[in-house]
Write a structure and sequence with these properties.
Elements (H helix, E strand, L loop, with lengths): L1 H9 L8 H10 L1 E5 L4 E3 L7 E7 L2 E5 L2 E6 L4 E2 L1 H6 L6 E4 L3 E7 H10 L1 H18 L5
Antiparallel strand pairs: 1-8, 2-7, 3-6, 3-8, 4-5, 4-7
Helix pairs in contact: 1-2, 4-5
């Protein structure tokens, strides 16, 4: 559980959470293994999971063009975790992966019970929007 909590603590979405709240999130998280070549998400399709990469690498493509490679400790899918909207990229396992996975339903249940976690998530998403859209007032 300690390694899981260390990974979750580094995720900006949970940066404002206290130890007790991280432990609660940790109980919601499933640890799964995924083979190389598996598509985790497809651009334009609806998503409802958030992933933290424990080990392995993934290729991130938008409109068929590679835009990033993510590895151990990186995370993806946080916006879809909140709104279950369409994925902004296609993500494929380049190597076998070990992932932490949080589902939409479980996460929203936690938000209903914990205003601190909800505030932390909203703050992290607002910061991300400001970074990606610097012209917004």
């Amino acid at each position: 559980m300690d390694k899981k909590l260390d990974l979750l603590r580094r995720v900006p979405l949970f940066g404002g959470c206290r130890q007790r709240e991280l432990e609660e999130i940790g109980r919601l998280v499933d640890e799964v293994d995924v083979p190389a070549g598996h598509v985790l998400m497809t651009q334009g399709r609806t998503g409802g999971e958030f992933f933290v990469i424990v080990s392995g690498t993934v290729r991130v493509e938008r409109d068929g063009v590679r835009i990033a490679t993510l590895k151990d400790g990186d995370f993806l899918g946080e916006i879809a975790l909140v709104d279950e909207g369409p994925r902004s990229a296609t993500v494929t396992a380049e190597t076998p992966l070990r992932l932490l996975v949080v589902g939409h339903r479980e996460f929203h249940s936690l938000l209903d019970r914990s205003p601190t976690v909800e505030r932390s998530v909203l703050t992290a998403l607002a910061k991300r929007v400001r970074r990606t859209e610097p012209d917004l007032l």
